[in-house]
Amino acid sequence: MNKKVSSLLFEIKEGLIISLRAIAANKGRSALTTLGIVIGIWAVVTMSTALKGIDIAFQNGVSSLGSDNLYIDKWAWFNPDTPWWELRNRRNISMDDYYRYKELAKLPIATAPSTFTRKTVKFRDNIVESMFITATTSDYIKTTNLDFSDGRFFTDMESKGGRNVIVLGSAIAEQLFPFGGAVGNYVDVGGRKMKVVGVLQKQGSWVMGDFNPDNQGYIPIEFLFKNFASRRKSITINVRAPNSQMVEAVKEEAIGVMRRVRGLTYNEKNDFSINQQEGILSQINKTVSVIQIGGFFITGLSLFVGAIGIMNIMFVSVKERTREIGIRKAIGAKKRTILGQFISEASIICLFGGLIGLVFAVITGMIINQWLPTSIQFDAVVLAILISLATGIISGFAPAYQASKLDPVDALRYE
Amino acid sequence: MENIISIEHIARIYQVGLEEVHALADVSLKINRNDYVAIMGPSGSGKSTLMNIIGCLDTPSRGIYLFEKENVSQMNDNQLAEIRNQKIGFVFQTFNLLPRSTALHNVELPLIYAGLPKSVRLERAYEALEKVGLADRVDHKPNELSGGQRQRVAIARALVTQPSIILADEPTGNLDSKTGNDIMALFEELHETGNTIILVTHEEEIAQHAQRIIRLRDGLIESNEIVKERTLVGNNE
Questions:
Q1: Same domain, yes or no, for A43 and A127?
Q2: Which letter does DSSP use for residue A279 in this model?
Q3: Is the dihedral of CA A21, A22, A23, A29 positive or negative?
Q4: Chain-centre distance for alpha carbon B12
Q5: Any idea which of A329-333, A376-380, B49-53, B129-133 has the lowest mean pLDDT?
Q6: Are A251 and A332 part of one and the same domain?
Q7: What is the DSSP letter of B221?
C-alpha cells in the first residue's frame, strides 16, 4: 500500500516535471494560451471585488443610519401597497405629536424630530450651493452613530432656544474651510449668520448621496421654524431602539403610541409609516444581486472563452506533437502517463495564467479601492486558483484523452 | 542458447474498407540471446509490420508471440508499454529524439517511465552516453548534434534500460556511408558485448553485418539463412 502511494507520488512528480519541460519548450504558444485565462481570471476576480465593494459601500452607507433605528414619517419609504395620494393626504406629523410620542414611548433609548431643507452656505469666497440641512434637536446625536473630528453637537439649551449654531459634515467643512479651523467661525446659511460648533468625522461613503452625513449640515429645528419654515411642516421622528433584538418591540410600541397620539379609532388605518433601513437594504440587495448575476455572467463568459481557447490550443498541440507522443509511447509511456502529461500541461498553463490574472486583479483592486471600500478577499484568491485549475483539467481532458489514445505505430509515422 | 523471441504462425490483417489486407500472412521465427539478425524485404513485404509486432507496438491478428516465454499477443496496451519500456530498445531511421530536450534528458526518458529515482537515472544515462562516445555532448540538444551523433544518442536511449533486444529500423538510412559505417561498428561492438540485435533494412550491404538474414516477401518468410561472409567493420578506435 505504502509502496503504491509512493510510486503514484513519484509518477505525479515526474509527470509534472515532464509537463513543465514541455511548457518551457513551447514558450510562445504556452504564453499565448495563458492569455485567455489571464483575462478570464482577471475579469472574474476584479468583478467580484468590485461587486463586494459596491455591496460594502451600500451597507456602510445605509448602516450610517443606524441599524437599530426607526423613522416615523408621514411618507413610506418603500410601500408599493399604499397609493401616493393616500400618503399625501395624511395629516402632517407635528412637533406636538413628537413631544407626546416621546412622553408615552417607554422603550426607545433616544428620540429626535427631524426635517430637511436646502440652503446655500458661504464662508468668505467658499460657497456650497443648496446644502442639505437636517434640522433637529440636541437628542438627534443619540439616535445616530456619528462621531466628531472637532467640536461638538449643539446643546439642549441651544436646541430649545433655536440658537444660530450649525454642525457641518466633513465634506462640507472641507469645501468651506479647505485649511481647517471651521469650529468657532460664522458661516452664512441662507442669509443668516450661524456659528460652527462641530465638524463630523468622515463617513466616506458616496452611496447615500445627500443623505450622507458628510454632505450635510445640522441646525436646531427651532432655528429652522423661526427663520426658514413653517411650524406646520411635517417632521420625521427618529427613534433608536436599545438593540437590534428590540427593534420589533419598539416598532409595535410606536404603532400603538402613535395611534393614540393621532387619536385614531380602531377601524381607522395608520396615518403614518414606520420606516426602517431594512427596507432600503432589501431594495439595495435586489439591485446588487441583479448586478452580480449580470457581472458574473459576463466575466464567466470571458473565462469560458479562455477555456475554449486552451482546449483548442491543446488540440493543436496534440496534433503537432503526435510524433513526440509516438516516441514517448514507443519507449514505454503508458496511456495514463500521456493523459496525465497533457492534463497537467493544461492545468499548469491555466494555474500560471490564473496567478498572473490574480496579480492584475490585485493591482486593479488597489485602483478600485480609491472609490470603493474593498480589497481582494482571501476566498476570492482561493476560488480563482481553484477555478483556473479546474479550467485546465476540464479543457485539457479531451485533447489529453485524444493524445493518450494515439496508436504508437501511426504516431511514429506521422510527419 | 536461451530463446528470447518465439513467433509461431502469426498473421496481421488490416481491414481497409471492405477488403482485408494480409500484411503478414503466416510467419514463424525464433531469436535467441545474443543473436544479430537482419530482417530484409522490399516495401510491401510486411517487414515494417513484423518489426512493429516484434517491437510490441502492434499485436498480431492471429498466432502466438512469446517474448521471454510471456505471451505478448494477449497483452493489453499498458502491459505492452511496460514490455517496450523494459525489454526493448528502439533505434529509428529518423532518430526520433525529443527535439527540445538535451541528449541527457532524451536518454533518461525511458528510465523515468520505468519509475527509477533521479540519481540512478542520471548515472545510467551518463553511462550509456559514454558507451556511445558522447560523454562530452550530454547537454546538447538534437539540433546541435550531427546526424551520426543523434543516432548515437538514440542508441544510448535504447541501451539505457539494458533491454533484452535492440530493434533498429533502418538505422543508417538517414546517414552518409562513413557515418553509417561508424554506427554499424557500434552495433557490432554492442553485439560483441552480449546484446541481441534485430536490424530491419532493405540494404543488402547493411544486412551483411548480421549473423543471419530473414527475407520477407508478400507477408511470408522467403528465406532464413546464416550469413556466410559477414562484413565486419572492426573497432574504429
A1: no
A2: H
A3: positive
A4: 20
A5: A376-380
A6: no
A7: E
